[in-house]
Design brief:
CATH architecture of the domain at 24-280: Orthogonal Bundle
Strand content: under 5%
Helix content: 55-70%
Number of strands: 6
Radius of gyration: 22 Å
Strand order of the largest sheet: 1-2
CATH class of the domain at 24-280: Mainly Alpha
Largest sheet: 2 strands, antiparallel
Order of helices and strands: HHHHHHEEHHHEEEHHHHEHHHHH
Structural class: mainly alpha
CATH topology of the domain at 24-280: ABC transporter involved in vitamin B12 uptake, BtuC
Distance between the termini: 11 Å
Number of helices: 18
């Protein structure tokens, strides 16, 4: 019996089980992650357009605006899923993740716009954008293999600042601050997507998020995923046990960057525009906040955290402004809640670290690691105790 199997057995025996006849259903979906992701995303994709038709959601904005926000939230979900590979699974703090988002976006702008004179279809550009971002992920990861913690964070922060500045000052190749506009929208079997019709983009985003989640689940449960988690816990011990930390860390950077490149291609195709001001440090910070608040290491948790934070940022805060404009309230009517979003992020992060450091939707492993065991509770046994039990 492996350590992971033993830990899962203790979780079930300590009360973390579903009541009645739901236990076999849970067991089936845990054994078939791909099916669980497909079913879950299908239910979410069908439920969201129906829920927003009901009050109070229908009072915030029109249905088309909700669908547009859901589609853009999918971009941030992809970004959060990719950053979760680097930060949540491999434990490598990346503060310049928006750079890979920019690389994917500009790759599509160069490959499908009148500015470049090229018109490569959207679908192969998804792969090209992901590949280009992965290459730059390796180029970033290679010089930083010996760096850890704060030093790695500073280098990635510098990379994240350099890339938008290069795009901004390369007027001849990127049109500088004006960005590249009039990008060609996607088309499928003769049907060209329109920026007015949101449903096709919504469906494509659902498919991309579903595919990304399936692949990341496969990676997490593979030998590579276990190597990432071993490096996250103790890189020296992982190397001592035969894990090639060089290739493992480079793969984490590459795969995380490729997901951001995928999001960048989709974002540019939907907006038909890309510019350097879309990829500032605030994007990297927002995505990192989504990963931390959602629950590092938990794929569904990270996706939900990204969705919730984006909806708060794009819908709730704007709705609060409109509400207090219509209903004058002393002091609150003078506050622009959108401008205070990063203050709210900071307060939320501080509160989360104090009260629930594992995030809103933590993985079982993180929950066991970050909470002390109650007297007689074997479910919260330390990793050293688990390893000792497995060796016996």
């Amino acid at each position: 019996m492996t350590i992971q199997d033993d830990a899962e057995r203790r979780d079930l025996s300590s009360g973390d089980r579903m009541p009645g006849g739901l236990a076999p259903v849970r067991g089936f979906f845990e054994a078939h992650r791909s099916i669980s992701v497909i079913v879950g995303m299908a239910l979410v994709g069908l439920a969201l357009p129906l829920v927003v038709m009901l009050p109070p959601f229908s009072t915030f904005q029109a249905g088309a605006a909700w669908m547009n926000n859901f589609t853009l939230a999918g971009v941030y979900i992809l970004l959060a899923l990719g950053l979760n590979i680097v930060v949540g699974l491999a434990g490598l703090l990346d503060l310049g993740y928006a750079a890979f988002f920019a690389i994917g976006s500009y790759t599509y702008a160069f490959g499908a716009s009148p500015f470049s004179g090229l018109h490569i279809p959207f679908w192969p550009m998804l792969l090209i954008g992901a590949l280009m971002a992965a290459i730059f992920g390796v180029l970033l990861g290679a010089p930083t293999l010996r760096l850890r913690g704060d030093y790695l964070a500073i280098v990635t922060l510098g990379f994240g600042e350099i890339v938008p500045i290069v795009f901004k000052n390369s007027d001849t190749y990127t049109r500088g601050t004006n960005g590249i506009s009039s990008l060609y929208p996607p088309d499928l079997l003769g049907y060209r997507f329109s920026t007015i019709e949101i449903l096709p983009f919504y469906i494509v985003m659902l498919l991309l998020v579903t595919l990304a989640m399936i692949l990341i689940y496969r990676l997490q449960e593979s030998r590579l995923g276990r190597s990432w988690m071993a490096i996250r816990e103790d890189e020296l011990a992982a190397a001592s046990n035969g894990i090639n930390t060089v290739t493992t860390k480079l793969l984490a950077f590459a795969l995380g960057a490729s997901t951001a490149g995928l999001a960048g291609v989709f974002s540019s195709a939907k907006l038909t525009f890309t510019g350097p001001d879309q990829f500032l440090f605030t994007v990297s910070f927002t995505v990192l906040a989504m990963v931390v608040l959602g629950g590092m290491g938990n794929i569904w948790g990270v996706a939900l955290g990204a969705f919730i934070l984006y909806m708060i940022q794009s819908v709730l805060l704007k709705g609060l402004n409109q509400f207090f404009d219509a209903v004058p309230v002393p002091i609150l009517s003078d506050i622009d809640f959108v401008q205070y979003q990063f203050l709210l992020y900071g307060l939320a992060l501080v509160s989360m670290m104090l009260l629930r450091p594992e995030g809103l939707f933590p993985s079982k492993r993180r929950r066991r690691e970050l909470h002390t065991a109650a007297p007689g509770d074997d479910a919260a046994a330390t990793p050293a105790q688990e390893a000792g039990g497995a060796l016996q």
